[in-house]
Write a structure and sequence with these properties.
The structure is a homodimer of 348-residue chains.
Chain A (H helix, E strand, L loop, with lengths): L4 E3 L18 E14 L2 E12 L5 E7 L5 E7 L5 E2 L5 E4 L2 E4 L2 E9 L25 E9 L2 E10 L2 E9 L6 E7 L3 E6 L8 E7 L9 E6 L5 E8 L10 E4 L4 E3 L2 E9 L5 E8 L7 E4 L10 H4 L7 E9 L2 E8 L3 E8 H6 L3
Antiparallel strand pairs in A: 1-25, 2-3, 3-9, 4-5, 6-7, 7-8, 10-11, 11-12, 12-13, 14-15, 15-16, 16-17, 18-20, 19-20, 20-21, 21-22, 23-24, 24-25
Chain lengths: 348, 348
């Protein structure tokens, strides 16, 4: 009998030691959250590489890009009363917040789907300009005809928003700026239009009222978005009680658009669930997972930079099989094969 | 010598007692924040009317619309430990938040610009559907050719976003859904396109990183928006240190787009400032007020439902004069005449 989820035997596929830092003085802290796509018969992934600076005695150092794209290191003395470094991910100095790591994206290819290689032919993508001074993260890739749409998280002191780039050759990219304004992330564009309209999932967050819910938006051109609707809210006492957001683009099935999403509880444990959306109007939810379809079980999913985390934003589909790439413990990249028909059985 | 600001001698023009509640059992708490426009030679305003329910002994009652648009009253016992009613504007029950008042919009007209009348010909606009169950607020009106674009705040447990309606006759309205997803408000659409593109100010807020900053977005059709850019951030120790947001649509001058905005400090004191934006690329800021161009001075601005507040989202322009309608103390509607040339002198 087919299982819903089968993890790959060589997991984790990629770990921080497997790649070189972007420059001297930087250390790769996490490899995570790959977008995935097919290109010229190969499987490609767009990997998030989170780096920190080598730390100096008695100091906390954080990396940021200036608006020209140059990396700067800011050093703060550990004894400084204006410094709050109690969170491993964010430090605060004199009321301003900085990330302890800065992320960029790398493009890797594989012939077999699990052995990935980097080449100079496809250089990394770094943050650029005023909206990416704290880096870029968690890229989804959607292919519409010959064009790949890359939606990713832009991070800066202006806030956290969704950036869009398009490419046809993975070497030259056209930037379309910020397509969803702060606070927003987890954006995945559908891989075909529905009744002439583009659709995208996104995940706004609110400082008051509302929450960390999954939304859908419409577009006439894939670049300008409107008609925002909330399609899935957090549910008390379940795996998705604190936050949820889209994985990769949904998969078209006979029963509807199948979307895999991540849901987290207040213990920051990240599992995966599924949504089934109306084929003709994807803002209508037909069904939603009562229980996770996948949860942290393996050691590399339970222990790492941030343990008890499974987070996916990339897959490629072959027949009934979803080759799903995912970030494990915010530190490694792993692969699991999911069965579309078995997931659909849980959504009756 | 001309002054920057001249308040109208009959201020406040409108107060809660001047209008009738929308239905029995409701009490008008505040009249505030009017959008303004010209229609058939008259001045129109779209007023926010905030109502509360008549309170019962030992209870707190809050009004909400259900998804069919029916008004429901929720009653909470004052002794209930799940109730937190320490804030006059928001109560919390069992982790869920509700507003103590619910707002709708009313359309009033004036022949002289300061005596406004309601008529049955132009009925009020109430919240409708899942995104307006807590009401609708603070409507800006922009006229582009013969069409009026109404951008207003939609409030519900899904979050706070920007809704868009269009009309040509102020009787029938076309709804375009939520055009800026949560958390967003203070949206004003430019009254003409620039190089073929629509522009709009908006004000996203973030639960982490970023702040309550003023942004601009582009659109090809006035309905779907993208290319979001931050044009003005809060400034420490100034009148706009905590939050800022657009007033009405900007005014085209020879020196650039002149935008009046509200800025608040951490004492919740709301003043007005001005921005001058590049005529050809309104995302470029040419100049910004060092000091407020108007601040709460009169008794009706200093004392009321929420004192020390001047908030504008509506004006009509005649030559050098801006007839600016504004909410005073979150309770009254007032009028001041501002001089474009005098404001521009402060922006050298």
């Amino acid at each position: 009998m087919k299982k819903i989820v089968a993890r790959h035997g060589q997991n984790p596929l990629l770990s921080p030691k497997d790649l070189k830092p972007s420059r001297p003085g930087m250390v790769i802290e996490c490899l995570l959250n790959p977008g995935a796509f097919k290109y010229k018969g190969k499987t490609g992934i767009v990997l998030r590489v989170a780096e920190r600076t080598q730390q100096k005695e008695g100091m906390v150092s954080v990396p940021i890009y200036d608006e020209k794209g140059e990396l700067k290191i800011l050093d703060f003395s550990l004894g400084d009363p204006k410094l709050d470094n109690s969170d491993a991910r964010v430090i605060s100095y004199d009321g301003k917040q900085y990330l302890t790591t800065i992320s960029h994206l790398r493009i890797l290819f594989s012939a077999d789907g699990f052995t990935f290689e980097e080449s100079e032919e496809f250089p990394p993508i770094f943050g650029q300009g005023a909206y990416e001074t704290y880096g870029i993260e968690d890229c989804r890739v959607s292919q519409i005809k010959d064009t790949y749409y890359l939606t990713y998280t832009m991070v800066s002191s202006n806030g956290v928003g969704v950036g869009l780039k398009t490419t046809t050759d993975w070497k030259t990219f056209k930037s379309h700026g910020m397509v969803f304004s702060p606070h927003n992330k987890d954006c995945a564009i559908f891989e075909e239009t529905v009744n002439g309209r583009f659709y995208a999932f996104h995940r706004p967050s609110s400082p008051e009222l509302g929450g960390n819910y999954m939304w859908i938006a419409e577009s006439m051109d894939g670049i300008h978005w409107g008609n925002h609707k909330c399609i899935a809210r957090t549910r008390p006492d379940r795996f998705d009680s604190a936050r949820l957001g889209a994985g990769a683009a949904p998969i078209k099935t006979e029963r509807g658009w199948l979307a895999i999403y991540h849901g987290a509880d207040y213990g920051h444990r990240y599992c995966l669930g599924a949504l089934l959306l109306d084929l003709d109007d994807p803002s209508k939810v037909v069904s939603r997972s009562e229980f996770p379809i996948m949860e942290p079980e393996e050691p590399y999913e339970k222990v790492g930079f941030f343990g008890e985390v499974i987070f996916t934003n990339g897959h490629v589909v072959n027949g009934d099989d979803i080759y799903m790439y995912y970030g494990a413990s915010d530190e490694h990249v792993a692969l699991a094969t999911l069965s579309i028909s078995e997931i659909l059985k849980t959504l009756d």
